[in-house]
Amino acid sequence: MQTGFSLIELMIALALGLIISGAIIQVMVSSRVTQGVNQAVTSIQENGRFVISRLRTEMLMAGRSDLLASSLNTAVDVIEEASFVQNHPVILPGDFVAMPALGATNGNAGANDQVVIGLQGNVDCRGNHLGYANGEEFFVVNHYFVQNNTLLCRGFDGRVLRAMLASNDEVDNSAEIILDDVFSFQALYGITNTILSGDNSGRPIRYVTAGELPVVLASGGQVVALRLGVLLRGEGEVKVSARKAFKLLNEAPTTQSGTGLFKPFETTVTLRNVKNYMRSRKL
Q1: Does 90 fall in a domain?
Q2: Residue 10 lies in a domain
Q3: CA distances from 240 to 35, 211, 228, 259 (A)
């Protein structure tokens, strides 16, 4: 006598199979979502640490000038150049005759800022020697800006920009990528004014935008610190049910659209070279 499964037993087995399959699929979907979130969190943390560390390291050297450096190239009047570098740690539009538009600017209505610094060094922000011998120091000008959600930098020979040396057409001043997925780049400038404050410490008395710097400098003030803020997006697509508004420095809060995990990073950099220079002046 042959026996088999009854219709009821088959229906029960099918139902149990569907329940188990649904549970497995749910676990797989949940695992994939968790993996995507973890990937976004990890990438945004790594990128944030990287960009803040790099910007701090490079901005820290703004205003550096060392006339005693044996590697300093002496093709120009280095004493006059040192005075210019020390008094122009942050480059403003109009500082250079060869490129008057180059300079730190603040974007309107939350748009990205641009930061331009000057220093004595042997390479620009891209690691280029700009035609000088390996190890030779010269007046370096670094320009940081965002284009198409990518943080870029480009370097210049400040001596060429000041028309102290002839331009070298073989030198490449094109921009190089620092980091992708940068959705906001903001900067504030900590200024000191020993004439107004009576404080010779070189500490910043307030923070201003790039647009306010010409008036500050004309009154005897100087930039001794930088506050930088970036808004980054992590890798991969992460669906967030409620979008959070982010506020960078003095800008109004903004809410980013689309998929992705966003996180702001901020840092304050003391320009030690300029601070010490201002303290030594004892105005």
Answers
A1: yes
A2: no
A3: 15, 36, 27, 7
What would the pLDDT profile of 233-266 be if each residue is shown by its tens digit? 888 666 666 678 889 998 888 888 777 788 999 9
**Residues spanned by the domain of 85:** 39-281
Q: Minimum mean pLDDT among 34-38, 108-112, 214-218, 253-257: which range? A: 34-38
| pTM for this model (two decimals) | 0.85
Q: Is residue 164 part of a domain?
A: yes
Confidence at residue 230, expressed as pLDDT on a 0 to 100 scale = 96
Domains identified in the chain, total number: 1
Question: pLDDT, tens digit, for every residue of 135-181?
Answer: 999 999 999 999 999 999 999 999 999 999 998 877 889 999 999 99
Q: Within a domain: residue 13?
A: no
- Quick check: 109 pLDDT over 80? yes
